[in-house]
TrEMBL record:
Positions bound to Zn(2+): 643, 645, 667, 728
Binding positions (Zn(2+) 2): 658
Binding annotation for L-methionine: 433-435, 486, 601
Record Gene3D superfamilies: 3.20.20.210
Name under which the protein is recorded: 5-methyltetrahydropteroyltriglutamate--homocysteine methyltransferase
Segments forming domain Cobalamin-independent methionine synthase MetE N-terminal: 5-314
Pathway where it operates: Amino-acid biosynthesis; L-methionine biosynthesis via de novo pathway; L-methionine from L-homocysteine (MetE route): step 1/1
Active site: 696
Length: 759
């Protein structure tokens, strides 16, 4: 009979209890003991949900106060020196200093860099390793959590980020060196961890090596063999887990790995289940990730059963069934959603329901009774033929797209002259990325409007007051290009999805993006179209409040696609083009309303890339085209901006140039302007706004620091093509720190203009 297990569960709680607890601790409203108790309560509830769904091995170590890669760094003792406690100890405040640059117990030092976890919208804190790095077992949280679960009577499977993935994701803190040279120092600590888990009575340990989804150089393949051999025979059985794509490039290697079992993602990438079965011997566990851990669609269990039934008969107890990856990327429980359209709701499954899908598969294998599976799968088949999903007019518009729809009237070299003449901006123009603080008053007004407590007119009046305030603040700071502050927007994707056809929304469909930041992705269930303008009236109102240039703010087609739960019955390029056509109409309407600077954010552009380098170019071609379609309906004088953050640009710099935005603003402060190397080496031709301070830290940058970063940027990019701006939007910050940070940013810029003789 098959065995069911789980790779990881959402850690935020059904209603974001972790977020609210952590932020209360940061504000000093609860003490550390109270925070620890709230975390424990979430873990206990998560284990109960999984156990009640029949999961036979519960994951432990998937819980994190901020990020599981940061947890691994603390476990291994790989803490940047600036964050270490004076006595050398590691505690919860150490974790918050690394992630935020600040903690309740003090320290205001630069936070560690943050970037995307493979091709997801989850962000991890990048480990900083030096050539002489030492490691040592430092943080006991994993072992304490194993003890918690054991005390409740659960059989557990601790989850570890594998050593090769950990080294691959790390950065060289100072001088560049081969990170694999640290493997001999790292492996003894992993062995120590495994031995300690064995002493606690653990039988199985899940070692995650998602780097197997990449096309690795030979030295990394060799290191995986070395690593797994070292982890073998430490008193526990190793379940090697990879996910997010197929591992077809490593079939021969996998056959020789000294592990007790291997987990394969059978949803992402092409997988031949019969071939996977042949890779492992009869004594090894074959774990098949059959339920999509990254999307919210109900599974067609009847079809899945037909695929795995022959394997189940031959492999018996050594067939394990699981989600494709950790359920971290899905909301917790569909049962909370009582306002969703009933038909659409029947098409969905959240984390709790995905575990129940596994239970149904297991019961069918045991009993050979398929009626329940057929009944469960009926809504999936109904969705495939639903007339609600398809819009012929939208499909015809997409089919009519050609190369000319992705071209501006003139090349950038011609456009920039017209824009300089019409916009009249100074050297080093200052701006922000778009959003200003979402205060409690703003959130309360939105809540009351949705609840029907205040009228649409009252809500509009309150939002206009917030816009006036944001404009007044920016004018007082003397920022050159203003934004309206986005007070009316709940989220940069959800806001647009609410005004587009083909989207649905949840009440509690939250997923973690980073730390305490959660997002509630819309669900793209049908063809996408725009019925009326979405941002024009708000932006026009803001422009009427100032003589300065007002920047229109939109979210780009690629980001709306990848930051939504997207439909799985249509290819991604087609969905992106549907969204791009809707945005194209919005861009033209903004221009016609007198807005001649328009920013189309694409922070998910790098995130959407396939994991295998051989597949990159095809993706970059259609993603850049979709952006150009959204942006290319305007005249030369209209300046198009885009924004990207927390991404590695080296691999996509050609595609960024291919997007042909007039100005790109990017996150660079955490990397101390290192990310600009890609733009310098490539000789990126357009204008760039490298972020000069980290908006994810509450620390206010001083003028000297901002000037030093601009000087660094000017050594890589001609100063005539530089803008000055924060790393990202200011939605999560408070007004006091925002005002202080922007004041220093503007003062630093003015001092530099004087030094350059530009005033």
């Amino acid at each position: 009979m098959a065995y069911i297990h789980n790779l990881g569960f959402p850690r935020i709680g059904k209603k974001r209890e972790l977020k609210f607890a952590v932020e209360s601790y940061w504000r000093g409203e609860i003490n550390q003991d109270e925070l620890l108790e709230k975390g424990k309560a979430i873990r206990v509830e998560n284990w109960a949900i999984q156990a009640n769904a029949g999961i036979e091995l519960l994951p432990v170590g998937d819980f994190a106060w901020y990020d599981h890669i940061l947890n691994t760094s603390l476990l291994l003792g790989a803490i940047p020196k600036r964050h270490v406690n004076t006595d050398g100890s590691v505690d919860l405040d150490t974790l918050f200093r690394v992630s935020r640059g600040k903690s309740p117990s003090g320290c205001a030092c630069a936070a560690s860099e943050m970037t995307k976890w493979f091709n997801t919208n989850y962000h991890y804190i990048v480990p900083e390793l030096s050539k002489d790095q030492s490691f040592g077992l430092s943080w006991q949280a994993l072992f304490e959590e194993v003890g918690e679960a054991h005390s409740l009577g659960y059989k557990v499977k601790p989850v570890l980020v594998g050593p090769i993935t950990y080294l691959h994701l790390a950065k060289c803190a100072d001088e560049s060196f081969n990170k694999l040279s640290l493997l001999d120092k790292l492996l003894p600590v992993y062995q120590q961890v495994l031995k300690k888990l064995a002493e606690l009575g653990v039988e199985w340990v899940q070692v995650d090596e998602p780097v197997l989804a990449l096309e690795l150089p030979e030295e990394y393949r060799s290191a995986l063999n070395t690593s797994l051999a070292a982890l073998n025979e430490q008193g526990v059985k190793i379940l090697l887990a990879s996910y997010f794509d197929s591992v077809k490039d490593y079939y021969e290697d996998i056959q020789h790995y000294p592990v007790a079992g291997v987990h394969f993602d059978c949803v992402a990438g092409e997988q031949d289940l019969a071939k996977l079965n042949q890779l492992l011997n009869d004594e090894q566990v074959l774990s098949l990730g059959l339920i999509n851990g990254r999307n919210i669609w109900r599974a067609d269990l009847s079809s899945i059963y037909n695929q795995i039934e022959p394997i189940a008969q031959s492999r018996g107890d050594n067939l394990w069934l699981a989600p494709s990856c950790s359920l971290l990327h899905t909301p917790v429980d569909l049962e909370q959603e009582d306002k969703l359209d009933a038909e659409i709701r029947d098409w969905l499954a959240f984390a709790k329901q995905k575990l129940q899908e596994l239970k149904l598969l297991k019961l069918a294998i045991e009993n050979e009774e398929l009626t329940t599976l057929d009944l469960y799968s009926e809504p999936v088949k109904a969705r495939a033929s639903s007339k609600r999903v398809n819009n012929i007019m939208v499909q015809e518009k997409v089919a009519s797209l050609n190369a000319n729809h992705g071209k501006r009237q003139s090349a950038f070299s011609e456009r920039v002259k017209k824009q300089q003449a019409s916009l009249g901006l100074p050297l080093l123009p200052t701006t922000t990325i778009g959003s200003f603080p979402q205060t409690q008053a703003i959130r309360q007004a939105r809540k009351e409007f949705k609840a029907g407590i205040i009228s649409a007119a009252e809500y509009e009046n309150q939002m206009q007051a917030e816009i006036r305030y944001a404009v007044e603040e920016q004018e007082a700071l003397d920022i050159d290009v203003l934004v309206h502050g986005e007070a009316e927007r709940n989220d940069m994707v959800e806001y647009f999805g609410e005004q587009l056809e083909g989207f649905a929304f949840t009440q509690f469909g939250w997923v973690q993006s980073y730390g305490s930041r959660c997002v509630k992705p819309p669900i793209i269930w049908g063809d996408v179209s725009r019925e009326e303008p979405m941002t024009v009236s708000w932006t026009q109102y803001a422009q009427a409040q100032t003589a300065k240039k007002m920047k229109g703010m939109l979210t780009g087609p690629v980001t709306i696609l990848f930051w939504s739960f997207t439909r799985d019955d249509l290819d991604k390029p087609s969905i992106a083009n549907q969204i791009a056509l809707a945005l194209r109409d919005e861009v033209v309407d903004l221009q016609n309303a007198g807005i001649d600077i328009i920013q189309i954010d694409e922070p998910a552009f790098r995130e959407g890339m396939p994991l295998k380098a051989s597949e990159w170019q095809s993706y970059l071609d259609w993603a850049a085209y979709a952006f150009r379609v959204s942006a290319s309906g305007v005249k030369d004088e209209t300046q198009i901006h885009t924004h990207m953050c927390y991404a590695k640009f080296n691999d996509i710099i050609g595609a960024i140039a291919d997007m042909d935005a007039d100005v790109i603003t990017i996150e660079t402060s955490r990397s101390n302007m290192e990310l600009l190397n890609a733009f310098e080496d490539f000789a990126y031709p357009n204008e760039i706004g490298p972020g000069v301070y980290d908006i994810h830290s509450p620390n206010v940058p001083d003028i000297v620091w901002v000037k030093s970063l601009i000087h660094k940027a000017a050594k890589k990019i001609p100063v005539e093509r530089l803008w000055v701006n924060p790393d990202c939007g200011l939605k999560t910050r408070g007004w006091e720190e925002t005002r202080a940070a922007l004041e220093n940013m503007v003062k630093a810029t003015k001092e530099l203009r004087e030094e350059l003789g530009a005033n």
